[in-house]
Design goal:
Helix content is 42%, strand content 17%. It is α/β, with parallel strands linked by helices. The protein has a single domain (2-187), classed as Flavodoxin domain (Rossmann fold), CATH 3.40.50.360. Strands 1, 2, 3, 4, 5 and 6 form a six-stranded parallel beta sheet that branches. Helix 1 (15-29) crosses helix 6 (167-187). The longest helix is centred in the last third of the chain and has 21 residues, at 167-187.
Length: 189
């Protein structure tokens, strides 16, 4: 079993990556393989809706970093999508990734169906709920199993490291990771 977390922040080693690490820690402690993938420095073009993936079962529209990342998600049982809030919504890189991933999945046997996971949103002050909802909708439309927690998976943080001050966010995200590990354990018992 494996769970992949995608950090949609264009910044390396920031609060969004740290949020992913917090979620993945209890999953790894449960003996499940984890991988954190940062989109920082990666090139992900937007989906052009060309439809070629219906024939090829992969995205051939662009020469970028998407195909390798898609393969990692494809073989995983779990997927966490995380984004900082930029002007009230998820970042461009994570949106490009989700659009292409969802499009290819739906055109090639729905490989996202029944994967387990959920969204994480990080913001300085506001916009977490809108971004959380934006990411959550991806799970529903792709027939995925979205795992909950004691609150929404959101953090208040701006500067790198400020996430460590949001105690309720840390407790929420840790419980979220525990719930993913628990559910994967039940399904694979």
């Amino acid at each position: 079993m494996k769970v992949v977390a995608i950090s949609g922040s264009p910044r390396s080693n920031g609060n969004t990556e740290r949020a992913c690490q917090m979620a993945l820690q209890p999953i790894a402690e449960a003996g499940i393989e984890t991988e954190l993938i940062s989109l920082a420095g990666k090139h992900i073009e937007p989906c052009t809706a060309c439809g070629a993936c219906a024939k090829t079962k992969k995205c051939t529209a662009h020469q970028d970093d998407f195909p390798d990342l898609m393969e990692k998600v494809k073989v995983a049982e779990g997927l966490i999508l995380a984004s900082p809030v930029y002007f009230g919504c998820a970042t461009g890189p994570i949106c490009n990734f989700m659009h292409r991933l969802g499009y290819v999945s739906r055109r090639s046997g729905n490989f996202l169906a029944r994967k387990i996971g959920g969204p994480i949103a990080v913001a300085r002050r506001a916009g977490q709920n809108a971004t959380f909802a934006q990411l959550a909708m991806f799970y529903s439309i792709n027939d995925m199993i979205q795992v909950g927690s004691t609150y929404w998976n959101v953090f208040l943080a701006r500067e790198a490291g400020e996430i460590e001050k949001d105690q309720e966010g840390i407790e929420t995200i840790t419980h979220f990771g525990q719930n993913i590990a628990w559910l994967l354990g039940k399904l694979n018992a």
